């Protein structure tokens, strides 16, 4: 009797629930279509390549390689062109210096659609922060990049590089070509481990080796996610093998950083350890972060400490590896400039076998070659911003706020 009485009520409830869900879906769809029309109107004056009805430009980018495809489009469409990821997310890809100046001289916030992908790993460090919080962290970290702090690092750079060159000498003796990218990446990560945590190859335990692998894995997975339109949705991404692998690597990286921070904090409570720290030849990045205070004596929280360390490891490892690898590629392409760089280095070194801090300012020709290589092959080829107010470019075309 009770069940027969409840059945009509349950049926009506299910019907109303279906109606509500349908209405919400329709409203959301109309909202997306309105937003799509608004974005398309804003970009009317910027012609671009044809789009797929569902994927926009994402499918073609995945097929042909993101950066290569975008470079070919820059030759077809001067100054800027729209880049659609699906039908509801669009960026204006700008590559003309005056266009870039119009945007990057204003201090617009970073585009959350892209930079939120980084939060799971590096947290809210300098890369993703903005506004007062960014200025606070920047001010606290600036002393860590003073000349007096950086000078002792030159010996660390030289030591890690020497290990890499010894590897290459053995590989070269086999008279076979080999890929240098992984070796450069290991050298950059080894250097960062020493400069950030005070560790290196000679003192690595199982946890440190796992951290090495996790950072390398996270860097690759992050780039794969940005390039893959279907991975942009968090819910979908965390269900994929790539997403689960990313979360596992994140956990390894976070556990390692947290462990090192706890150890260092505990050590600083001991007078003997404090004396050892003062007698060390150089402070590592973690020492500087733990000692950072603002005018009110406020220091970084544990979450902020981990975010800045993880940010430093990501940005320092990935960009350094890319920059050095492309520079060596350019030197191989242009033997004449390579020879001039070699002669300059030999003249500066003399009878010594390693560079010192004061030598760096004397490397004028090498510095020019490095800067030109960065212009041709920038380690960070794309930076994303969301306009907080309208912008008008040098040729009269404009964009509204919010794009």
Automatic annotation (TrEMBL):
GO molecular function, one term: monooxygenase activity
Source organism, top-level taxon: Eukaryota
Presence of keyword S-adenosyl-L-methionine: no
Keyword line: Membrane, Transmembrane, Transmembrane helix
Keyword Hydrolase set for record: no
A Pfam family hit: p450
Stretches that traverse the bilayer: 13-34
UniProt xrefs under InterPro entries: Cyt_P450, Cyt_P450_sf, Cytochrome_P450_Monoox
PANTHER family per the UniProt record, alphabetical: CYTOCHROME P450 4B1 (PTHR24291:SF149), CYTOCHROME P450 FAMILY 4 (PTHR24291)
Family to which the UniProt record says this protein belongs: Belongs to the cytochrome P450 family.
Name under which the protein is recorded: Cytochrome P450 4B1 isoform X2
Species annotation: Mus caroli
This protein's encoding gene: LOC110292333
